[in-house]
Amino acid sequence: MGKSKELSVDLKKRIIDLNKSGKSLGAISKQLQVPRATVQTIIRKYKVHGTVVSLPRSGRKRKLSHAAERRLVRMVKSQPRITKKQVCKDLEADGTQVSVSTVKRVLHRHGLRGCRARKKPLLQKRHLKTRLKFAADHMDKDKTFWRKVLWSDETKIELFGHNTQQYVWRRKGEAFNPRNTMPTVKHGGGSIMLWGCFAASGTGSLQKVNGIMKKEDYLQILQENLKPSARRLGLGRSWVLQQDNDPKHTSKVVKEWLNQARIKVLEWPSQSPDLNPIENMWTVLKKRVHARKPSHLAELHQFCQEEWSNIRPEACQELVDGYQKRLVAVKMAKGHVTKY
Questions:
Q1: Which residues form the Transposase Tc1-like domain (predicted)?
Q2: Which residues share a beta bridge with 203?
Q3: Of 34, 144, 191, 218, whose Cβ has the fewest other Cβ atoms within 10 Å?
Q4: What is the separation of C-alpha 328 from the centre of its chain, rounded to a whole number of angstroms?
């Protein structure tokens, strides 16, 4: 016997109205052509719940108990890289057989979703220690100190954005339609290496590096660009250079020149790009340049120079003035990587 069709809300309301008007169950049943037992059930539910709308039903019994769900969540939190299939196997080994979709629903219900792991520098114990020390030593520095820092770094930018992603709207079976594909070129169609610097007052020099940069090349870049950039940005005399601990940066010849030029260098913790706000500047630069779709390397370099100079000083100052948040984040993460 098939499942009977549920009465509409309007019909249920008519049953309640007739009951309130004083009509008997039999009269209501005869007038509306509804079984007497159904009329009685609707009236009884209305008196208990005060509504004729169908209430949520319990549904099928869950495959996983609350205790099993908590165990599943603990398993995934302790092993973030475990796959759904492996979770199913582990549960099956303990006598609980569930599907991959069940595991997925349970994890979603607890706010856990599969995401791509972010690529971050490998941090060893010594790195964590130096990062925490840097945060502690500079936590009391105010905005005035950070506005006197000249931030510097190198980056590689590819002609066609080898690592960019593009999403499209398409139907099943249309994945390889030319309109839905993203053309690629080996090695990103070529790339250029750039050295740049900036401060809270704006962007400084942006220099193209020819070939593989050696310590002599780096020294020449510093000699030609550091002091002119500091003067142009109005840093005065007591400014500080920030650079990472790349072997070229810490080479003897570079250290000697910095000492002779009386340029102070900010002591820097290794493996800490998240503490250098110029990384955010590189992201802005690459997005703007790729939006202009350069067609060759010379045009790529030209667009980089133009977009670097177009970054507003206000954006630079906002980035630097919020620097203490990075230090707090490092402390909260106990030296591990942060969202920056």
A1: 70-140
A2: 198
A3: 144
A4: 19
The pair of structure tokens assigned to 314 is: 């206000």
Max CA separation in the chain (angstroms): 107
User: Cα torsion at 59, 61, 67, 73 (round to 10°)?
Assistant: -60
Higher pLDDT, 5 or 2: 5
Fold (CATH) for 125-333: Nucleotidyltransferase; domain 5 (3.30.420)
**Residue 217 — φ and ψ, nearest 5°?**
-65, -40
Q: What is the DSSP string of 201-234?
A: TEEEEEEEEPSS--HHHHHHHHHHHHHHHHHHTT
Residue that has been written with the tokens 């890289």 in this structure = 81
> Which residue do the tokens 């570079």 mark?
254
pTM: 0.70
Listed by start position, the domains of the chain span: 9-49, 66-110, 125-333
204: which 2 tokens?
């400084």
- Write the pLDDT tens digit of every residue in 198-244: 999 999 999 999 888 999 999 999 999 999 999 999 998 889 999 99
Instruction: Name beta bridge partners: 207.
Output: 195
